[in-house]
Amino acid sequence: MLGTATSGLFYYVLAYVVAVVGCGLALRRAVAIDDDETRRGLIGLLFSSGGWAAAQLAYLLAPPAYQYALYLTGLIIGLTTVGAWLYFASAYTGRAFHRNTTYRRAAVGTYVAIVAVKVTNPLHGYYFTSEWVSTPFAHLAIQQGVVHWVVTGLSYSLVAIGFFMLFDQFLEADFDTRPLAALVGATALPVAFDVAEIVSESLLDLSLEPVGVAVFAVGTLYVFEDRFLSVQLSDGVDDGLVYLDGDDRVRDVNEHAIEAFPTLRGADGARLDQVFPALAAELDADEGLLEQRDDSGGTYYLVTTTEFVRARGKIGRLVMLSDVTEAERRRQELARQNEQLESIAAAMRHELFNTLQIVAGRVDIAGSELERGDVQSARDSLRTASRTAERMRQLVEDFADLARKGKTIEATEDIDFAAAADEAWRSLDPDGVEFNRENGGSIRGDPDRLRSLLVSAFRFAVHNEASRVHVRLVEGGLWVADDGHEHADLDPEAFFEYGGAVPDAEAGIALPNVRTLARVHGWTAAVDGDYDGGVKIGVRGACTEPDQSSGATGPGADSETVASQSR
Predict the structure, then answer these.
(1) Exposed e or buried b for every residue in 455-469, given b needs 16+ CB within 10 A?
(2) DSSP three-state, residue 280
(3) What is residue 442's three-state secondary structure?
(4) Which long-range contacts (CB under 8 A, 24 or more apart) does 238-243 make?
């Protein structure tokens, strides 16, 4: 068994060897940190702490003639750890103290002044005194002077500022930072040893702070490296953050992400593609966009990732979910408007071309008829040309009205559906067509645009040679059905294409207008392909409160149940 003196020396030597080796190992990882200032501060801290530990180790093992100089060297190197610690803490937490010229000059001036006192200690002895002793083992014993305690108090005060910056960062971070806080706390444990040295005569007056730094550095860069880097990146970020390891397993999730996506709660340790496949699919996309559907519509999140890569490969990544709903809705609205304007322009070109051909053809026919003396036929041809031109004028007005109403509405209100449907039908006033409003209720939307939507739907039904038109408000929408021609052989989507001339050119832009006016509300419009006996148009996605009762009244009556009229 080792003697007391030998074992005492062994434990001191072991502690400093651990510190030197730990700082060296951590240095290998520290040089790969992406942030320049954090990397510079941590490398400086590891160099100074490792050098301090090496000087203390040499002091213990060197011959007596060199111990004084080595102890003094350790004091000078050890003082640099204070500046390195503050630089690292400021850089890691995103503060600017380490860039402040006044602070830097004050730090250098203070360091030079203290080093001058230490170097001249053999002349004045105010910093420490020494004597050769043999217990607990042969070494140069140090008795600290008053200047040492002043410098120590100043150093601990400055180091405490670094602790405050780091702990404040950990408290503000929306992650589980307890492991990192524990590692930072480990750097302060040697202070307890310093206090014990004051009250115990058996302990040497040596500093073990390098051991605490080594524990902190190895822990953060080898055990919790991805968390250590993620916390720095997440400072001041109010977006959702998901913290993944190298195998894309969830390591941590902040509250913003859990509030937006409850499925992430309790997902620690699970693979992301198992608990949240939609997000996993967006991770490697060039422009990942995640949509979250809810009662108020869609919420859109931009998915961005920051990978932590070392020589051994990817060690993890931080996924940020930024709410870009407003920007995405504006983009979609612009895309919709551009598509709509292109469709309208194409339809206008088509209609104008057809109209000009018809007018020109009818005028030529009228001229030919006049040459033959058939005034009546010429008059009929000119009347047809006039009606065609009038139809074109009406279409141009419809296009202009649609362009005005085609912007997404910003405000809605509860609309009396019965009144809106009856008014829309009266504006057409078709002869020989019966109108049946099967119920009433309320629908949330824009009154003017809803009326235009219904007018367009009714106009198509009349053109479809219906003898009876039905309209009904249902949960989540409405439908308009007629008993006119069936078009089972046509693609239902073709009815809504501007310029598509479906089912014929005379149908105009009635159904394309229905879809456009539905879209500005955030609704959808489609032809029911399963409906027999005519055409049925369904509008879905609306907020409605339909009446379930039914009856039979005229379109202008007060009843909100059914309106029917034969003309």
Answers:
(1) bbbbbbbbbbebebb
(2) helix
(3) strand
(4) 239/320, 239/321, 239/322, 239/323, 240/301, 240/320, 240/321, 240/322, 241/174, 241/175, 241/318, 241/319, 241/320, 241/321, 242/272, 242/279, 242/318, 242/319, 242/321, 243/175, 243/316, 243/318, 243/319
Beta strands in 50-154 (DSSP E): 128-133, 139-144
Which tokens hold the place of 521? 């509300």
Which helix (H) or strand (E) segment is 523 a member of? none
Torsions phi, psi of 41, nearest 5? -65, -40
Distance CA 21, CA 13 (A): 12
pTM above 0.70, yes or no: no
Please provide the distance, in angstroms rounded to a whole number, between the alpha carbons at the two ends of the chain: 118
- Residue 5: CA count within 13 A, CB half-sphere: 8
Q: Order of strands, edge to edge, in the sheet holding 297-310?
A: 250-253, 240-245, 313-323, 297-310, 288-294
How far is the C-alpha of 395 from the C-alpha of 401, rounded, in Å? Answer: 10
Tally Cβ neighbours within 10 Å of residue 201.
7
Dump pLDDT digits (tens) for 350-390: 667 777 787 788 788 878 877 777 778 777 877 877 777 77
CB contact set of 540 (below 8 Å; sequence gap of 6+)? 476, 477, 523, 524, 525, 526
Query: Each residue of 22-58: pLDDT tens digit?
Result: 999 999 888 888 788 888 999 999 999 999 999 989 9
Q: Cβ distance 379 to 431 under 8 Å? A: no
Using an 8 Å Cβ cutoff, are 480 and 470 in contact?
yes
Q: Which positions ≥6 away from 560 have C-beta within 8 Å?
A: 416, 417, 418, 439, 440, 441, 547
CA distance 483 to 464: 8
Query: Smallest Cα–Cα separation from 457: which of 493, 419, 425, 422?
Result: 425
**pLDDT (tens digit, 9 = 90+) per residue, 159-202?**
999 989 988 888 877 667 788 888 888 887 777 776 666 666 66
- State the CB neighbour count (10 A cutoff) for residue 406: 19
Distances (CA, A) of 407 to 12, 338, 517, 522: 78, 11, 9, 11
DSSP-based helix, strand, coil % in the chain, nearest 5: 55, 15, 25
**What is the distance between the alpha carbons of residues 36 and 91, in angstroms, rounded to a whole number?**
9
For residue 98, what is the DSSP state?
Answer: G
Closest alpha carbon to 73 in 59, 83, 61: 59
Closest CA to 88 of 149, 44, 25: 44
- In a 3-state reduction of DSSP, which class is residue 517? helix
Structure tokens at 457: 């739907």
As a whole number of angstroms, the distance between CA 190 and CA 206 comes to 10
Q: What are phi and psi of 81, to 5 degrees?
A: -65, -30
Burial of 11 (0-12, 13-18, 19+ CB in 10 A): exposed
From start to end of 295-384, where are the E strands?
297-310, 313-323
pLDDT digits (tens, 9 = 90+) for 425-481: 999 888 889 999 999 999 999 998 899 899 999 999 998 899 999 999 999 999 999
DSSP bridge partners of 469: 435, 482
